[in-house]
Design goal:
Blueprint lengths: L1 E2 L1 E2 L2 E2 L9 E2 L1 H14 L23 H15 L6 E10 L2 E10 L2 E9 L4
Antiparallel strand pairs: 1-4, 2-3, 5-6, 6-7
Length: about 120
């Protein structure tokens, strides 16, 4: 069981508690957290998080391959397979779409990225 996050904050259940999730939703919450957390930001867990924030420093032609590598690296300890990673621009925002396979299910997660220019 995991706590649900929205835009970096825990989601209230409206009764003084917090919303919890299980199963695929729990996995997606962990995935979102790991992909948005900067790798190395926790000194005692240096392998936690992703390096997706570095994509803006790479040439445009290299970004999609690097994005896939960074997603796979961030999720290496999860029991899932990264089946696809794509980058797009939408309404002035850079978005990453990660496609995952977990326990026979196909899951997708979208992460907003900054600074890709």
């Amino acid at each position: 069981m995991a706590l649900m996050l929205r835009e970096g904050d825990y989601v209230s259940d409206g009764r003084g508690g917090l919303v919890t999730v299980t199963g695929a939703r729990e996995l997606l919450e962990r995935v979102l957290w790991k992909l948005t957390l900067r790798r190395g930001s926790f000194p005692f867990l240096p392998e936690l998080g992703s390096r997706l924030h570095l994509l803006g420093q790479a040439r445009a032609a290299q970004r999609e391959a690097l994005a896939r590598r960074y997603v796979e690296e961030a999720l290496a300890d999860e029991a899932l397979t990264v089946t696809g990673v794509g980058l797009s621009q939408e309404e002035g925002r850079a978005l990453l779409l990660a496609e995952l396979a977990w326990q026979g299910e196909e899951l997708t997660v979208t992460v907003e990225l900054g600074g890709l220019g």
